[in-house]
Design a protein that fits this description.
about 160 residues, two-stranded antiparallel ribbon, 6 helices
Length: about 160
C-alpha cells in the first residue's frame, strides 16, 4: 500500500512537471529575458556609437566583434513578445506591440536587416561604410523604440 501511494505521488509530480514544461516560460521570465538581451545589445552598441560620433577612435576589430554579437542577439528576443507577455514584470514594452503585431514584426525585420548591413560593412574595415551602416541601425532601433516602448516602466 505504501509503495502504491509513493508511486502515485511520483506519477502526479512527474505529470505536473510535464504540464508545466509544456506551458512554456512564465510571462515574467520572458520579460526579463528580452530585457537581458536588449541590455547586451545596448552594451555592444555603446562603443560603436562613440566611434560613429567621433568620441572614440575607429577600431575595425571592435566594430566587427560587436556587429557580429548584435547580429546573433537580434533574433533572440522577438519571440519573447508572445501572447500574455505584456504583463507580469515591470516592462517598458508598449501594449501596442500586441495590438499592432504586423507593424511590430515589420519593425523587427527592419532592425535585423539594418544589423545585417552593419555586419557586412564591418567586414570591410572601412570607417565611412561603418558609419553609414551604423546610422541605419540607429534609425531602425529608434523607430521601433519610438513606436513600441513606453518612457516609464509599467506592469
Amino acid at each position: 500500500m505504501k509503495r502504491t501511494v509513493i508511486a502515485a505521488a511520483v506519477i502526479a509530480a512527474a505529470t505536473a512537471g510535464i504540464a508545466t514544461a509544456q506551458q512554456g516560460p512564465k510571462p515574467e521570465d520572458e520579460i526579463r529575458y528580452r530585457q537581458s538581451v536588449m541590455n547586451v545589445v545596448g552594451r555592444a552598441m555603446g562603443p560603436m556609437g562613440a566611434m560613429a560620433q567621433g568620441k572614440a577612435p575607429f577600431n575595425a576589430a571592435v566594430v566587427q566583434k560587436n556587429a557580429a554579437l548584435i547580429d546573433s542577439l537580434m533574433g533572440l528576443h522577438w519571440n519573447s513578445f508572445g501572447p500574455g507577455t505584456d504583463k507580469g514584470a515591470p516592462t517598458k514594452a508598449d501594449p501596442k506591440i500586441w495590438k499592432e503585431t504586423a507593424k511590430f514584426k515589420q519593425a523587427a525585420e527592419a532592425g535585423q536587416k539594418a544589423v545585417a548591413s552593419l555586419v557586412a560593412a564591418s567586414k570591410g574595415g572601412e570607417e565611412a561604410a561603418f558609419k553609414a551602416a551604423f546610422g541605419e541601425v540607429g534609425k531602425a532601433c529608434k523607430s521601433c523604440h519610438d513606436d513600441f516602448r513606453t518612457k516609464e516602466f509599467h506592469n
